[in-house]
Structure formats: C-alpha cells, structure tokens
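# nightly structure sweep
# worker-07 picked up a monomer target from the shared queue
# config: single-sequence mode, recycle default, output format = structure tokens
# input follows
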Amino acid sequence: MSLSRTHSGGGGEIPNGSGAAAILAAGIGCAVLGILAFAGDASDAIGKALNVYNPTGTLSGVTTLAILVWLVSWFALNRLWRERTVAMVGINLLSFALLAVGFLLTFPPFMDLLQGK
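# output follows
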C-alpha cells in the first residue's frame, strides 16, 4: 500500500499532504515520548542523560526531545508531501498505531511488565 501519490493538478483533487504530515508527525511524537519515557525508566544512564532540569527529572528531557522530534518530523513530512494527495487511511492507521505505542509505554503497569518488575 502506497501512502502517497503525486497530485496531478487536473483531477480536481486538493492536496492533503500537509494535513497528513501533521497527523503522522503527531503519532511519531507520541511514540518517541513513550520510547524515551520507557528507556529513561529502564536505564539509569539514559535517565541521567535525559535529566535536563532536576526538579522534574527525566521527564524534562523526555518531553523536550519528543517535542523536537515531533516538530522536525512535521516539518520534513510537510516539505515532502505538501503538493501531494496522500492516502489518509494508511496515514491514520499508522498514526493510531504510533499513538498506541506511546500510550502503552507511558502506562506504568505495562512499563513495569516490560521491565519485569
């Protein structure tokens, strides 16, 4: 399944690539937040590296990096897809899967289960 196709201009379709870029970037950002939260909790070295601001601890670096990844991916995908019509079903499914990854990896019982606690 192809996620994008070039806008032909003559078919009357309005490019939806910018919207698709925003949706997919949000899913990517959520997944990165979950992965970093899990990694920071599972590894003391990663947790210390992610500690940007002592009063909030690891969460400060987790959220900062997740926001940066979200913004960079949104910018890159928008530049790539802004003139295209994108298959939104595939983008939405992928985005919801990434959202689920982010949710599960920030859910303490699931995180503890993965770490064997």
